[in-house]
Amino acid sequence: MAKFAITFIPKPSSVNWLKLTAFSLLSISALTLGAIALFGKVDSALPKISVNVPSLSDSSKIQASLRSDKNNNPQNPVQGRQQEEPRLNGVSDPSLQQISLQPNNARPLTKNTPSLPTSPNALVAVPIAGFFEPGPGGVLPIISPSGDKPSAVYSRSFEIKKGKPVISIIVGGLGMMKRTTMAAIEELPPEVTLSFVPYTPDLQTWIDLARAQGHEVMIEIPMEPFGYPETDPGPYTLLSSASSAENTRRLEWLLSRTSGYFGVTNYMGSKLTASENALAPIFRNFNRRGLDFLYDGETKRSSLKNVAVKEGLSWSTADRIIDIKQTTTAIDDQLLRLEAMAIQNGSAIGKGFSWPVTIKQLRDWTRSLDAKGYQLAPVSAVIKMRNEENLTSSKAVALSVNDSN
């Protein structure tokens, strides 16, 4: 994003002052008219949101991080649970902070209407009766009285063909940037899974739009990284130092931001995912609400598998982050590696961020997969397949042990 600076000249002459004033007015007018021409709305010309994008040298920061000035960061709310929640990092618009951080002001859920653009692949309108209960910011997902899970009814139905390598793609960081979010929804095939930032204004509308185009969706749960709070995923971050009750309170606020997601994925979390004690109640909550979990594969954590198995959670790990470097060559190289992993292991999950170059390369690459002999499947289908394979493998091992005894 371009940055503009105005240099103030001390004691200008009246002539120079008039010239400077005229030039400033013309510059402001040009910028305003340019914004109106680009976005089609007068409001678009007004500065509202400032989101700082971190360096991409660290793959753990692959998604756009919402940051604030270190001096403005409040104290860790876990040390004083009655403190006000931290402000939304990097966002200066008070109305956006109110929408994003105050559960009582959360936007009411709406169903898809004929005014929404739809496709033949459109998923059903949400929320679905029997799969939600009241929450602090909207509704919370629950397993229905008949035992059906949100992970099943909100996912995109897909039948995986045996003997054909399977590839899944999830694109994250969606919702905060309108243009790239719309590009992901409209230009990527419906088999591509989309994940959204929970602080997104009018989040339910984005979810509805994505589902109307056939995309299953996930939401991103901020989790504590090493270096927290200097490295801050955002308000209501789940913390390794927090009590089970506190993390549950935070998680329920995040989960009640919207409806229609089949599962959740992490945003950061290098420290939290290293603690089995902290993970256990979080995974228990996911499982109790019938949600799938996808770990972005930032670091290899045995604790994830240990806790997931113990809690009976349906989960998996992304095999490769495809856009650590935002160049066409680097992304294409990662996609080729993903293809090789799918051949070797039977399936592969790639995760990317909503960079324009990522969406463009995915749009072109996904069109070639069928001709290459791959099947592009939603993430939910691969999670289900992998968990069924693990269950079958575990049963086989148990039978083998019993036979040997």
Protein topology:
Layout: H1 14-39, H2 94-101, E1 132-134, E2 139-141, H3 150-153, E3 166-174, H4 178-187, E4 193-196, H5 203-212, E5 217-223, H6 244-255, E6 263-268, H7 276-288, E7 292-295, H8 302-311, E8 315-317, E9 320-321, H9 328-345, E10 347-353, H10 356-366, H11 369-372, E11 375-376, H12 379-404
Parallel strand pairs: 3-4, 3-10, 3-11, 4-5, 5-6, 6-7, 7-8, 9-10
Antiparallel strand pairs: 1-2
Helix pairs in contact: 4-10, 6-7, 7-8, 9-10
Question: How would you describe this structure to a colleague?
Answer:
By secondary structure, the protein is an alpha/beta fold. It has one domain: Alpha-Beta Barrel (TIM Barrel). It contains twelve helices and eleven strands. The protein has helices at 14-39, 94-101, 150-153, 178-187, 203-212, 244-255, 276-288, 302-311, 328-345, 356-366, 369-372, 379-404, and strands at 132-134, 139-141, 166-174, 193-196, 217-223, 263-268, 292-295, 315-317, 320-321, 347-353, 375-376. The strands form two sheets. Strands 3, 4, 5, 6, 7, 8, 9, 10 and 11 form a nine-stranded parallel beta sheet that branches. A two-stranded antiparallel ribbon has the order 1-2. Helix 4 packs parallel to helix 10, helix 6 crosses helix 7 (276-288) and helix 9 crosses helix 10 (356-366). The longest helix is centred in the N-terminal third of the chain and has 26 residues, at 14-39. Mean pLDDT is 78; it is low at 1-114.
What is the arithmetic mean of pLDDT? 78
Major sheet size, sense and barrel closure: 9 strands, parallel
Count of individual beta strands: 11
Q: Which superfamily, in CATH terms, is the homologous superfamily? A: Glycoside hydrolase/deacetylase
What level of helicity do the residues show? Answer: 25-40%
Strand content: 5-15%
What is the first-to-last residue Cα distance?
Answer: 67 Å
* The number of domains: 1
| H/E series | HHEEHEHEHEHEHEHEEHEHHEH
Looking at the structure, what is the overall shape? globular
CATH class group = Alpha Beta
Q: So, CATH architecture?
A: Alpha-Beta Barrel
CATH topology name:
TIM Barrel
Instruction: Report the radius of gyration as a whole number of Å.
Output: 23 Å
Class per helix and strand makeup: alpha/beta
